[in-house]
Write a structure and sequence with these properties.
The protein contains 14 helices and nine strands. The chain is α/β, with parallel strands linked by helices. It has one domain: Inosine-uridine Nucleoside N-ribohydrolase, Chain A (Alpha-Beta Complex), CATH 3.90.245.10. Strands 3-2-1-4-5-6-9-7-8 form a nine-stranded mixed sheet, sandwiched between helices. Helix 2 links the parallel strand 2 and strand 3. Bound molecules: beta-D-ribofuranose (BDR) and calcium ion (CA). Calcium ion (CA) binds next to loops. Keywords: Glycosidase, Hydrolase. One of its GO terms (cellular component) is cytosol. InterPro entries: Inosine/uridine_hydrolase_dom, IUNH, Ribo_hydro-like. One of its GO terms (molecular function) is purine nucleosidase activity. This is Nucleoside hydrolase.
């Protein structure tokens, strides 16, 4: 079965890894890359997404520019210290000369959902402002799409920006609240799975060997990111968070989920916390009346990494 997807993204090293993985997967048809601020400002996200399409020879894939600011509050602090000044690990890669699509990211999502009702899976791997805006433009969006998978959150583990919050959700907590509360059951791939599946640096060397163009780009771009993740550790490690929801579409049997009701904190202290009450663990209507989520809580690491390698090798 082929999955039509739209990737909502802020590329970003692990976003790049995920996008190339999707392009290489015969089971996946990428309808567009909708960009959002997050790791970097939105204009850089859009430019980087165009560059990734160029590298992959996929200039047929539309790239749109989306929200530049959180739903509430000032401009975000970007994660240049994780992804480099250019979002690609400071490798000075020549920018694309292609133009972005004139539609906004939210408009594009709504237009595609109306064009292919019931067929599209939204895969959000950045902050959730574009999806929240698409829900405002088209309140029937949950009925129009097949599903939504998100890289974000931390259900039963600590956060990576604050003790309770993961970066994508922390970056736009009000938008996340709108998205998780909408009339769909989000599949959430949070730090519960992504931070418990480190790869060693040889992984990107293998990607480069298997696929000199896309893997070669990943090998160069990831060095800065690997250094960030390897601080205060004895061994070098790397985490490719954003590729998880796409891998799930290709091989769902690699993942385990916990179903529960979810609430997103928007107060300043706990901003971006994704609290999940597994089904049957509370009778409080504050929780039982909240929307359901499927939170990924287990993954077969070795098979997942092999899937990435085999797919890059195609
Ligand atoms: C998430 O935050 C970003 O830095 C990554 O691209 C990923 O989407 C991980 O917390
Ligand atoms: Ca991302």
């Amino acid at each position: 079965m082929t999955h039509k997807i739209i990737i909502d993204t802020d590329p970003g090293i692990d976003d790049a890894m995920a996008i190339f993985f999707a392009f290489q997967s015969p089971e996946i048809e990428v309808l567009g890359l909708t960009t959002v601020y997050g790791n970097i400002p939105v204009s850089m996200s859009a430019r980087n997404a165009l560059t990734l399409c160029d590298i992959a020879g996929r200039q047929d894939v539309p790239v749109t520019k989306g929200v530049a600011l959180p739903w509430v509050g000032p401009e975000s602090e970007y994660a240049h210290f994780v992804h480099g000044d250019d979002g690609f690990g400071n490798i000075d890669y020549p920018p694309s000369t292609r133009e972005v699509d004139p539609r906004s990211s939210a408009e594009f999502i709504v237009e595609m959902a109306r064009k292919y009702p019931g067929e599209i899976t939204l895969v959000a791997i950045g902050p959730l402002g574009n999806i929240a805006l698409a829900l405002r433009l088209e309140p029937e969006l949950p009925k129009l799409v097949k599903g939504i998978s998100i890289m974000g959150g931390a259900a039963f583990v600590p956060g990576n920006v604050t003790p309770v919050a993961e970066a994508n959700i922390w970056n736009d907590a009000y938008a996340a609240d709108i998205v998780f509360s909408a009339d769909w059951e989000v599949k959430m791939f949070g730090l519960d799975v992504t931070l418990f599946a480190p790869t060693d640096p040889a992984f990107v060397d293998i990607l480069a060997e298997k696929n000199p163009v896309m893997g070669g780009f990943m090998q160069k771009a990831a060095q800065f990111y690997i250094d960030f993740y390897s601080q205060n550790r004895d061994e070098k490690v790397c985490f490719f968070h954003d590729a998880f929801p796409i891998a799930h579409l290709v091989k769902p049997e690699l993942f385990e989920f916990t179903r529960g009701n979810i609430r997103i904190s928007t107060d300043e202290l706990n901003r971006g916390q994704t609290v999940v009450a597994p089904v049957g663990t509370t009778a409080s209507p504050l929780w039982t009346e909240a929307q359901f989520v499927q939170a990924a809580t287990g993954v077969k690491h070795e098979e997942l990494f092999q899937l990435f390698i085999d797919t890059y090798a195609r």
